[in-house]
Amino acid sequence: MSTPLTIGYSEKYLNWRLGVGNGSHPTDPVRARIATDLLVKSLGDKVQVVEPVITGVTRDAVESIHDVGYVAGVVDQGRSGEWFGEDLLNGETALVMFEGTRTLVERMLAGETNVAFNPQGAKHHAHYSRASGFCVFNDMAWAARAFADAGLKAAYIDWDAHAGDGVQHLLIDTDIPTLSIHNGMNFPNDTEMAESGNPETHTWHDPKRHAYNWALARHAGDEVLVDSVGEALEIVSGYSPDVILLAIGADGHHSDPLGALGFDYPGYEKVAAMVADFAKKHSEPKVLIGGAGGYQAESHTPQVWARVVETLYQRLTV
To answer: What's the number of domains the chain is made of?
Structure first.
């Protein structure tokens, strides 16, 4: 595979200021810049960084997956439950981050890249007409449908301390499988995807709706992560996917303040290699990656992302 690792990144990502907007919110977008810099430093000319630019196509894409009135409230009025008051800059930034993923999908479909990464992608909690869990526009749900519209079979795999509920709900009426590996005692806990108070790892699968969930116990550790990803890939093999969509949340790291899943670098590297090996056997291979969660913005979050992306890309090039 000779195509570059393509990263969708813009300095405008740094305008993502949730909550009161003073930088105190746990989602600090500097993580995206650091992860991008780490990958460029490590992989050199094997990396191509593209800057997403909002056009009319961006909004059309967002409105194809979300309620039009909801989109207007965010973009035209700067209103969202993820921040206080009206903030048009946050609304614009939500569009830019979505466009980061849309641009990567476009380049993948054009054959310009097979592995692409949006560090501010995988806003996996966003629902049809509402924001949720620091997520406003659901780029991965849109991407899965876009690949399907192009005639490619897509599969969505999500490892994160928090369940990929928004993606599951937005794809539940399709035949695109969604597989989420998360903390079963963490947000969100209002669906079958999580069972608040359950101290044990358990699964909830609905094959008829192509929805699969691994609700892990707190401090589950690397071995459970590896086993769960292995089970997920076994299920995905039955779908014969052409492209893997991957949310690589770093908030399962053992020191993340919002995670508590006990994962560490060896586990992340192992599952990244597993996905790469699977893609080589079962897809073209094409892998679209989004950063998802992670709340150690200047340390472990970008380092985990970079390690996963580099491991996956290097493995695919062997």
So the answer is: 1
